[in-house]
Specification:
The protein is mainly α. Helix 2 packs across helix 4, helix 8 runs antiparallel to helix 9 and helix 8 packs across helix 13. The protein has 13 helices and no strands.
Length: 231
């Protein structure tokens, strides 16, 4: 019965949406870091495919249509940013400085660790844009000559972790400013983290959305320069 449903072009979409709905239900019952919907959905889909020995290709045939919503969903983050444009405008210098510095630290750390552990230039280039949203990270990796599949995997893992523990981390760092909290989450865990920032408040969501835009531009400029230094 399961293989029969797996042969449908709708299987991937239905499984993804169904697992996400279940994950949201579980998260509302037990709202802790490990029950973050994105994390539970990922684990649930992988577990389902392994349990019923369904090839990834059968799942991807339908699930790939969800990718069409990736760019529009990212663009939608401009709405909360527009609503808080006056608030963000008061901190424009601090926002630019903090996000650019954060991008430099992100790329520099990845490149330094890749170099220190001898991972090689291809892996280094593939991981350089780990903290940038997927749509932008893919373009950066293509230009750097990395492997897109590795980039996408790393970006997704980063986003899931940011979504799961971003609130707790900014709390541990005692960041009181909504703008600072949003920038920290958006700069480190892009769109998935921004979804969590929006739950914290409109200012956090707006700042996180802005961080996605600035970090994408900054990483596109800084990544080639930092990689060149270690070449």
């Amino acid at each position: 019965m399961i293989p029969f449903f797996a042969s449908s072009i709708y299987f991937g979409i239905v499984l993804s949406v169904g697992m996400y709905a279940l994950a949201v239900f579980i998260n509302r019952k037990w709202n802790v870091s490990v029950t973050t919907p994105l994390l539970l959905t990922t684990i649930g889909v992988i577990g389902f495919l392994l349990l019923f020995q369904i090839p990834y290709a059968a799942y991807a045939a339908g699930a790939r249509y969800l990718n069409f919503f990736l760019v529009p969903a990212t663009v939608c983050f401009a709405v909360p940013m527009y609503k808080q444009i006056k608030t963000l405008g008061r901190y424009k210098a601090a926002i630019l400085a903090s996000v650019i510095f954060g991008c430099g630290v992100s790329v520099g750390t990845v490149v330094l660790l890749s170099w220190a552990f001898g991972l090689g230039p291809v892996i280094m280039r593939s991981l350089a844009s780990v903290s940038v949203t997927t749509a932008i990270a893919i373009g950066i990796t293509d230009e750097l000559g990395g492997i897109v599949a590795i980039t996408v995997f790393a970006v997704i893992i980063t986003g899931i972790l940011g979504n799961a523990v971003g609130k707790q981390v900014v709390g541990m760092l005692r960041l009181q400013s909504p703008v600072a909290r949003g920038l920290a989450i958006g700069n480190s865990s892009h769109a998935m983290g921004t979804a969590k920032a929006l739950e914290l408040g409109p200012k956090e969501g707006a700042a996180s959305s802005l961080a996605i835009v600035i970090s994408g531009i900054a990483t596109a400029v800084l990544a080639p320069l930092i990689i060149w230094l270690f070449s």
